[in-house]
Amino acid sequence: MSAAVALKTHPRRFDPAAPLQVFEWDTAAYDFQGIYTAHLKETVGCPDIERFHEYLPAERMPKDPVEGTAHTYGHDLLYAIDPAFRQAGFVTAKDRGFIAAYRRLMRFVQDEVFGEPVIFQRLPSLRIHYPGFTSYGVMHTDREYSHPAEEINLWMPITRCGGTATMVIESAIGRGDYSPVNLNYGNLLIFDSALMHGNRVNEEGYTRLSIDMRVIPQRIWRDGRGTFSATAGKEFTLGQYYDRFED
Ligand SMILES: [Fe+2]
To answer: Hey, CA dihedral for 144, 146, 150, 152, is it positive or negative?
Structure first.
């Protein structure tokens, strides 16, 4: 495994010239970990979110460590964390304030990090990286999956994220020098959506959980009518895939 990406923590504002940058947010102000913990405890009796994999039946895990890992039975359980997702399957989603906290975080990102109005992903993507599996092992840019090129990627740990239990990403566009982003809860990685990224088989022994989302500064936003997110099944338009604050 190559060395981790050198990540510098930026105090406040987003720098459009930096391909990878890390910000910090106040973990006391947005209790994502607490909401995850309460949800997984109630849903599958899991007291420690890094042990989520131990509470899933073996026959509901992917058959292959690389294929079929992006949407698993565990994702169906996890997405019941908020009724807004409507992906709950047979699990009744309880409103624990997850999306409310997410929207407050997006407000922080807009006001404190970007310092200008942004369009943001209406519902974030919830990622699971089980031990012995990838999360999504194919190296890619989201643009290859029809995402608008103007998007800026945001990636946020819920558990520890390090070693093989995290995302790998190139350090500059086209360089192909994939190395892991070692981050902790309370960090927020922002990266250029032209950077290739993916992940490896997790050999760390714990389940990595993270959230990813995308923003576009409103001044360069163009309605992506006619193009769809393959995973979310939503058109890249306001009200479908994206949202913005009205005030
Ligand atoms: Fe991606």
So the answer is: negative
Domain 20-32+96-243 has CATH 2.60.120.620: yes
User: What is the spatial distance between Cα 4 and Cα 180, in angstroms, rounded to a whole number?
Assistant: 5
Distance 231 CA to ligand 1 centre (A): 11
Euclidean distance between CA atoms 210 and 13, whole angstroms? 23
Query: What's the gap in Å between 45 CA and the centre of ligand 1?
Result: 30
pLDDT in single tens digits along all 247 residues of the chain: 445 666 666 667 999 999 999 999 999 999 999 999 999 999 999 999 999 999 999 999 999 998 889 899 999 999 999 999 876 455 667 899 999 999 999 999 999 999 999 999 999 999 999 999 999 989 999 999 889 999 999 999 999 999 999 999 999 999 999 999 999 999 999 999 999 999 999 999 999 999 999 999 999 998 867 788 877 778 889 988 999 999 8
Separation of alpha carbons 45 and 158, rounded Å: 18
Q: What is the pTM of this model?
A: 0.93
Q: Any bridge partners for residue 118, and if so which?
A: 217
Tell me the CA–centroid distance for residue 196 and ligand 1, in Å.
Answer: 8
Angle, CA 204 vertex, CA 202 and CA 205 arms, to 5°: 100
State the Cα–Cα distance between residues 213 and 99, nearest whole angstrom.
13
